Amino acid sequence: MPTSAVAGNQFRSDGGIHNPARANRISTLWKMQGWRSISQMGDEKTGTRNFAIPLAVAAASRNLSSTKGWSDWHGCPDFSAHSWCDMPDAAVPPELADHLALALIPGLGPKLTAAVLQHFGSAAAARQATAPQLEAIPLIGAKLATKFAAALRRVDITQEWQRIQLGGVSLALLGTPEYPAPLATIPDPPPLLYFRGAFAPADGQAIGIVGSRNCTPYGIRMAERIAAGLARAGWTVISGLARGIDGAAHRGALDAGGRTIAILAGGLSSIYPPEHAHLAEAIARQGALATETPMTVDPQPGMFPARNRIISGLSRAIVVVEANVKSGALITVTHAAEQGRDVYAVPGNADSPASAGCLDLIRKGARLVRSAEDILEDVGGLAPFDPPKPTPRRAKAATGPTLFTAPESVPESGPPSGLEGALLTVWENLTQPRHADDVARETGLPAGELATILMRLEMKKVIRRLPGNMFERRG
To answer: Domain range spanning residue 34?
Structure first.
């Protein structure tokens, strides 16, 4: 075959272009992602080709030639000389390389990563740590230290970096200007954030909308309406791309022409649930997809509660649209209380199991909202997010303390107003930071009852949760 102007290209008799070197490279990258080969994509029943491609490839292939398209199913498509098939092996930026390596170590979550960085002073130094050095960190025992030391010696970031480039993904490192300011202030913020799309200054004014996957048409309708109203008012909508309420919230914001950010539990190489792939693509164009999870890691049940803290961390307030008493959305409420975010709940029928969680939140003091206007009336006058400063809290609209609001004044000589019974007993026990087990032993309260009391005190913002299941009074 004759060779084209692009190195290695060969013209076929049908006018298409075949490049063996590119074909081999694209096949390698495709297999690295775990996808089917291009030649396998299509309708197996009809024999027709399916031109839909995975989200990450769609993002990376925007330089696709407008004249040829997918001209060679067994090799590389006819891309320009600067297309993704050429995939230059760009080096990982030095400031990210060591942090990316830490992110790839199994079991090294946000708390342990923070402890490791504090102990060694830098990610580069942490990568050189030996097992005895790691064991000196209070949260790491001998067995874990040996495991981490071995993983740090053999970790290879090359494939992860190639996946990041292929997927059009960016990285935001905690402590850099690219990192979302509200998220940096929460307990255990993600050390490294993967994202597709872009964060914008306007995202400092964001509202999280959450609820059950198994929701009713009423829940879908309310989520879309509230999200659209907030988006039209210039607020970014944050949610988790899950089925049900999450998806409705994203769609409502997009349909109103606003910004929305989806926080995923798994990596960005594949979208979960798969039926939201097109929705995810729209979100990336009009906001961002973000996760703390490496590219090819599939979401596991235990990863969703950790994901929820990022949803609330990016938000000024959380709205629970429809949730039953066991909904994972209530975990987001707990994170919101710990992070000092306001909580709102949409009421439903009193006898509806689908709304039982929301009704319980309202009974305990969450603010009842019926529309975006109710939320905007309360938060619309706030300035964009700034890191907390040692200044008095803004006055609340409520006339008295509730489950989700701090008392208007906390006398220095006594307990906060509105506390009595077991709530007061636990608050008085926290004269210094204490572990929940110690509080249970000293107060004689059963563990289940104490957990409920501690959560209520957190929601009243008179105590705060510390790493390691420790608690202390708020000043």
So the answer is: 1-88
